[in-house]
Amino acid sequence: MRKIRPATLRDLDTMMALYQAARRFMAEHGNPNQWTDGYPSRQLLKQDIANGNSYVCVEGEKIVGTFCFFVGEEPTYRRIENGRWKNDLPYGVVHRITSAAGTHGVASFCLEWCFAQCGNLRIDTHRDNLPMKNALAKNGFAFCGTIYLEDGAERIAFQKDQA
């Protein structure tokens, strides 16, 4: 049975291995430009854990996915181009979601859990990340436009709300 729990520092090595596998998968499947240069870093994950924003999806005792989730404003979402957000209500944000190779439905399980926490969810991804775009469409997220990360990199933005 799957469940979501807050990540701990003891989970860091497993989380880092999941992200390393995800970087390899993305590079091999037409998305070599997302999560480059060792992103996300161990330090960033430690900060997420310290802030209470890091979660793992476990099946039995095995970690099969991880992500960052918080309810609050995401500064890079203030400006959106080529579209608009579905609403201006308070929202939750999902970042850095990944799952273990060979598992199925983990991303959907994590996204459903996040949506249940707040009922208004925003997420962004790289234009070339077809598996994530498919997962978002499957889970009822609507394309909203283009946002830009702090370093200026473009991402496509999605939102799911109660409507």
Number of separate domains? 1
Rg, Cα atoms, Å: 15 Å
The average pLDDT value, as a whole number, equals 96
User: What order do the SSEs take from the amino end to the carboxyl end, as H and E?
Assistant: EHHEEEHEHEE
Structural class: alpha+beta
Mind telling me the CATH superfamily name? Gcn5-related N-acetyltransferase (GNAT)
Strand content: 25-35%
Distinctive features:
7-stranded mixed β-sheet, 7 strands, 163 residues, Aminopeptidase, alpha+beta
Write up this protein.
The longest helix has 17 residues, at 12-28. The chain has four helices and seven strands; from the N terminus they run βααβββαβαββ. It has a single domain (2-161), classed as Aminopeptidase (3-Layer(aba) Sandwich), CATH 3.40.630.30. A seven-stranded mixed beta sheet has the order 1-2-3-4-5-7-6. By secondary structure, it is of the alpha+beta class.
